[in-house]
Amino acid sequence: MKRTMMLSGAWQLTGEGGDVGEGPTGGAIAIEAQVPGHVHQDLLGAGLIRDPGYRKQADECGWVEHWQWTYRREFHIDRPGGGRPVLEFDGLDTYADIYLNGTLLARTDNMFIRYRFDVSGLLHEGEGSNELVVRFRTVADGIAGKPYVDRSAAFTSERLYVRRMQCTFGWDWVGRLVSYGIWRPVRLVFEDLAVVEDLHVYTKTIDGRGASIGMALETSGCRGDAQTLCLELKMLDPSGREVWGCSRQLHSDRLELAADLAEPELWWPAGYGEQPLYRTIATLVDETGRVVDVRECVFGIRTVRIEQLPDRPGSEEERMTERLRVAGAEWERNGDRPGSSFALLVNGVAIYCKGANWVPCDPFPSRVPATHYEHLLRLARDAGMTMLRCWGGGIYEPEPFWEACDRLGLLVSQDFMMACGTYPEEDAQWMASLAAESEGVIRALRNHPSLVWWNGDNENGMSGNEDDPAYIGRAITERVTGRLCAELDPLRPFLPTSPYGGATNNSFTIGTAHYTGALLEMIDVFRKTDLRDYQAYFAGLLSRFCPEFPMFGTPELHTLRRFMSEEDLGDPALDMLEYHTKNHPGLVDFSLFRALRTLADKLTPPSVSIAEQIQKMSYVQHELTRLIVESYRRHRPYTGGILFWMYNDCWPASGWSLVDYYGYPKGGYYGFKQAARPVIASIERSEADGRYAFWVCSDLPYQVSGTAKLRILQLDDAAGADAAWERKIDFGLGPGTSSAILTEPLEALDALMDDHRIAVMDIAGAFGDARCIYYAGIPADMKLPLSGARIAARIGDDEQGEVTVVADRYAKAVQLHGAYLFSDNYFDLLPGERRTIGYRKPPAAEPLMSGEDHAIELLSWN
């Protein structure tokens, strides 16, 4: 049996300054380091840099990337025994020279590759000391001589040659924080006669007779021709009961098998069923029955495919395609080509994909604990998300991320790590490194049922044409990523780029489309219009499937206090908040921060304080996120899903994310959660159709029925006042259906809908209940009397509990503010209503900042 000696833990770190003239006096550093880790973490722990997340201190540590850094540690092999010694590095960031006892093992160039080295004959056994040294070369050294200056890239072009996390070269949500380090575990493995190198278990088919499961195993390192090795396999169901087994003698390094299971327990996405997980255990034994190696694989039984069907002539889908092509002529160049659907089918069932884009949780991802992954992913599931997209400028996330997605039923589409640039496909060395990276990643991730498709990259080919043989990035997909996916993971879909499909790869009527591609046009709308028709505008931003929809907002005040001072929060210009918002390279005279501030100023009433203005800049993310999800769901099955840009943050930022860096939901999270419930009510006013429509949208995979109560109410009415208009309707919907259960002519309801009235739609049934409140103008115009909104009761302690809120009159945008996770927020209350909201502290919550306590404050516009 093989033995493993972990080499993580305490190392020695030394640094030497170059001629940049930055860093500590003397140009040399010697401190203790932790592995896994990054240089910045150790410098911070030693007090040699200040926290790069606080205020503008990230600007102070730019010198770190220009120094040479070396990690050293000694170790003893107390009981050498037999077996071949193999040194394994799971991750090196990025250009490193590795020495063992003075012998150079390799020069590495890729953060994403797991490196393995046979170190036979290089170790000192017994009492002798072994020295392992990892010397990092700078990024500048690593790309010396590469012609990157004139290459097209967002933010900076030198990153295109560097196979490491792209976003920390600087993006519009994180500053430049280029680091170095042994960022994943290190171990010394003493292999026995042979090892099971790879175990791939996958679902071939599911039908009425059961499931056919395929298994592919690869072994290596067999020593001694006289030995006959046997591979024993068994499969355990989710309860741990053995449901299949076999034994095979090994005659080659590869073995393929199939198992047929009757009545399998299928793995489903969240909201569509359970997530049962099976295990396959492969045990390698020698002639005497001694165990040589063991490898396990956890998997789910499910099938997945993407369905793209042409619009039927004369259908509602065809009419919608024509409307979108007229409205978006600049982006839609498909001519008379029919539009086509985009639906993800899991086990043959169409899954409506609601979610967001996942980015690295930290600029130094080695310090992200498994508990933080669990926390963020549970928040996503609790918000009604069914899908996350791992974006191509980050990292391939570690096992805790994937294990949680498998357990929680969160679907994942995975980009290969290339984003927004023209990568050097003509560079043979770079392509070889990418190929090794891609093969390793495919093998590492392909057993996870949560992984449903691969994307070749992020936006490299966005301006290309799927029929163009030479669009940017196509050669990489054909020669490397797409080819390897076809060889190693053929039953999982592969899209060459994201977005992809149509005469341009950002088509709204064919394939997938990023509305981030139309961001500058969207911001022009914020700047140049009064946003009186904002609801109709955002409702019209549709596509067949949207892997990126941008919508920004600020974190809560308790989060802002974690990365800026009270003086910063008192600055009327909010300079520090703008610094932490970063900016898009296409915005020169109008920043992302100013766009958000303008949006809030136009949609919400004037603020009486800076704190209130910040709250309004969070509210607009709630409002627009809710509107957009509702619109996409109303247009199902024309739309197959929507993923927001973005879910989480990499750095203490204010901007795109729905959940902030510290793991607290922002306004957009609660807006998404409201609109992503399994069954929702939605009210639409359409000038084009000349009607009001009252919708019920269900994503449940079975029929639902219920009752809808529709009313038009006065904003200044007290409890019990009569409605100006009222209807009661029983409804029934099929599985995964959206339907307008009532329509009324515009003139009939417009006469009732002024700045003193709102339309309210309440639905209830076995599915629960839901509400939609509609105001015909912009929220800033609402004539709101004092509501008397207040916290009537609080039950619980400082860790978790419930608060009950009540309002005498209609209360707009009720916000519970405090360093907690709330079950709902930014909601409206009708006159006399009482609502009970749960609260809890997040796991491993950051300590409260100076001046904060465990209070919960209630805020509303009135």
Description of the molecule:
- The strands form 10 sheets. The chain has a 7-stranded parallel beta sheet.
- The model has no long low-confidence stretch (mean pLDDT 94).
- The chain folds into 5 domains: 188 residues, Jelly Rolls, CATH 2.60.120; 92 residues, Sandwich (Immunoglobulin-like), CATH 2.60.40; 366 residues, Glycosidases (TIM Barrel, Alpha-Beta Barrel), CATH 3.20.20; 102 residues, Immunoglobulins (Immunoglobulin-like); 70 residues, Immunoglobulins (Immunoglobulin-like, Sandwich).
- Helices cover 19% and strands 31% of the residues.
- The longest helix has 25 residues.
- It is α+β, with helices and mostly antiparallel strands and 862 residues long.
| % residues in beta strands | 25-35%
Helix content: 10-25%
Compute the number of structural domains.
Answer: 5
Q: Would you tell me which CATH topology of the largest domain applies?
A: TIM Barrel
- How large is the count of helical segments? 16
The level 1 CATH classification of the largest domain is Alpha Beta
Q: Summarize the main sheet.
A: 7 strands, parallel
Radius of gyration: 29 Å
Mean pLDDT across the residues is: 94
CATH architectural type of the largest domain: Alpha-Beta Barrel
Bulk shape: globular
